Structures are given as C-alpha cells and as structure tokens.
Automatic annotation (TrEMBL):
UniProt-listed InterPro entries: MoCF_Sase_C, Pyrv_Knase-like_insert_dom_sf
Species whose genome carries this gene: Gordonia paraffinivorans
Gene3D superfamilies assigned to the protein according to its UniProt record, in alphabetical order: PK beta-barrel domain-like
Highest taxon listed in the record's lineage: Bacteria
Name assigned to this protein: MOSC domain-containing protein
Database matches in SUPFAM superfamilies: PK beta-barrel domain-like
Taxonomic path: Bacteria, Bacillati, Actinomycetota, Actinomycetes, Mycobacteriales
Domain MOSC: start-end pairs: 32-163
Amino acid sequence: MSRRYPCEIVTFVVSPAHAYFGRPKDGPADEVETHSPRTVEVVADKGIRGDRFFGVRAHTEAAVSFLALEAWTAAAGDADPVLARRNILVRGLELDPLRGREFSLDTGSGPVRFRGGRPAHPCAWMDTVAGEGVRKALIGRGGLRAQPLTSGTLSVGPATLLADVELDPARAAYPVRRPQPL
C-alpha cells in the first residue's frame, strides 16, 4: 500500500566536478561550477544529467543524494545548504525510513522512482565550509543516497512522494535510527 507525502523540493545542486577533495585546511577547489537549476533530468541507473556522479559505475546505487532542509538547519543553522552539495534538498520529508525501499517523487511531470540506499555521511569539509562543529552535528542526518530506477524530470516546488513505509515529517531533522547501511 503506497502512502502519499506532500513535500517541497527547495533546490537542486548539480556540479560537473568535485569541489571538496584533498585537505580541508587547503580550502575547496577553485572555480568549480555549481548549478541550482529549476529542473533536473534524472536518468535511470545513471543519476542527474550534468552532475559529477552521472554514469559513474561505482556510484550507480548512490548516484543521487537527498538532504532534508530541517536536518541541515538543525546542524548548520543559517549556513547555505548548497554547501552540503547534496543533489536534492527537500523540506517536510523524513528520509531515513526510505533506506532499502523503493519510492517515487513527482513534481508534476510524472513520477521518478528511486531506491533508497546508504546514508550520505558528512565529510570533514563541513567544518571548513559551513562552520566549526557542523560535521559532527550532521552525523546521522547528512542525507540519503539513492539509485534512480526510472528517468524523468523533477522541478523545484511542491512535490509528492509515494512510499510503502510510514514517514513522519516532524522527524526530518532527527538523526538516523540505524547509522549503518542496511
């Protein structure tokens, strides 16, 4: 039985290259293009067209990353959530119960199906780019990696998520119940 959950896509983050590599004390890479388009094209088993993880075999099961705005705000305050570099920033959606589950997200152009994967753990860069202590505060609530199972278009704005698991939007900022992959 599928359950419907209204939510909102706040923004997308699409970048053709990694910005955070090497030592955080050296700072992020210079001039890494990062886009926040109004729409993205999701391609089954490949990811978001134009993103650094698109079509990378090692990331097929984790090609798209989600982050709840509530979790980011609880961890990083008013720091720009684009700094987390998660592909899809959502509001009003608990992500942890989606691990190991299929779900679909629809913003009006038809549903795009995903399979929830492992947690998206924060890296040491979070303290450098978003503020001291943000990495530790994000542990257990850094988001969800997912595999796109179908292709389609998603847009910023109101969305509906369909899943066969109970979600509680009031828990969107809570740390995960099981920090290890399923």
